[in-house]
Amino acid sequence: MSAWIGQGDVVLFQGDSITDAGRVRDNGNDLGRGYALMAAAQFSAKYPEKQVQFLNRGISGNRVVDLQKRWDQDCLNLKPDLVSIYIGINDTWRRYDRNDPTSTESFEAGYRDLLTQTAETGAKIVLIEPFVLPVPEDRKQWREDLDPKITVVRELAREFDARLVCLDGLFAQASTRAESAFWAPDGVHPSPAGHALIAKAWLQAVGAIE
């Protein structure tokens, strides 16, 4: 297990507020309080001999276009061996709260640009698909916008030979065991339990746990 992440590798978590999770921006080693911290902590406890360095450069509110603007500084220049990208919910959300939509086509083009640049470095790639739960009720209409973007992430994972973390189905399944708000109080931002779900799925995706 875990051979996919090698000795001394640098693993970079990228994304929006779910990845950011309140990290201290001026501390380059701060991992925030969410799934990135949980996954890194569990991996490091299980495989201390690997001496893997984990970095978090998630920024709250980011969309694909924002990642593109900072990809050189916050990804390529860090020379990661593995890049984990979790983006997409704000590309949907802004349509509904600011009338600032991101078309599926531009989302796909921007995402493909990020992946092309990353693949050229030889880094391994993990893609985490966005999810939304129906709390509050208005989130249900977001499916119309988000579902095609989730499909894009899945197709890009195949195209770029990336590991995929399938969160949308995972959170839907979890919501049969406890109400949706237990996992994500606003349908978007995970609770601690929700972050733990993501961390476990991520560790499974990279072969660190079964």
From TrEMBL:
Q: Which UniProt keywords apply?
A: Hydrolase
**Positions of the SGNH hydrolase-type esterase domain:** 15-197
The record, for Gene3D superfamilies, names: SGNH hydrolase (3.40.50.1110)
What InterPro entries does the database record attribute to this sequence? Ester_Hydrolysis_Enzymes, SGNH_hydro, SGNH_hydro_sf
Q: Which Pfam families match?
A: Lipase_GDSL_2
GO MF terms held by the record: hydrolase activity
Q: Does the keyword Hydrolase apply?
A: yes
Q: Does the keyword Hydrolase apply?
A: yes
User: What name is this protein filed under?
Assistant: SGNH/GDSL hydrolase family protein
UniProt source species: Paenibacillus chondroitinus
